[in-house]
Amino acid sequence: MTCEDARPMVHASVDGELDLTANLELEAHLRGCVACAGERSNILALRAAVSNSAPYYQAPVQLERRVRAAMRNARPVSGGDRFWFRYRGWVGAAAALLLVAIGVKGVLPLRLPLSDVTAREVVNDHLRSLTENHLTDVPSSNQHTVKPWFDGKLNFTPAVADLGSQGFPLIGGRLDYLDGRPVAALVYRRRQHVINLFILPAPNANNTLPISAVRAGYNLVHWTTAGTSYWAVSNLNDSELTNFAQLFSALLPQP
User: Fold this and answer.
1) Helical axes 34-53 vs 20-32, angle rounded to 10°
2) What is the pTM of this model?
3) Residue 134 included in any domain
4) N or C: which end of the chain has fewer CB within 10 A?
């Protein structure tokens, strides 16, 4: 299966519309394609963000009455007219919803907060790496093995820190997909807990200290330094994950 074949199927897969055979073929492709897997993660993150963040409002009584009246007065059709009736009906409904959204100021957000969407995508990528047993492309505890492995695979060079003596051994790295682009994912371990650290360029972002958050039951720590964004995610407790972020950040070249 090529990416051209897979991409139209990603939306159908997320909506549960693929049969078993097609879904298995798509899953096989996603395991080997960072770009298509990232597109699915983006869709899942966007859907979760809309579901959890978008406000819901009860339709005005007048609108309900108008819709019910229109349905009572609708002309029944048969044969070749049926498809056109359904098509016009759905277009009309979509247009009505759009007009309601535009007419009621602030009902729907025009843009979701980027950091929140990214946070949900980080959790999705973390879960996928665990459930698909694809933690590393380069399994190694040696930072001098992991860092050069990314050369030529990304248009930036991620920092790789050895935190084994502090209780956070490096176990490898891999390519992943986040925020619409390929990124570096470093994998660390704390006892039985896996930590994914996603690294991506953020040339216009201000430097920030590590900030913790919780998404879908997983702890995250995010910070930015020297034009690079870092996202750590794990089921490790918040204090230890924050400690990991602080230790890693302390070893980075200071801006």
Assistant:
1) 110
2) 0.59
3) yes
4) C
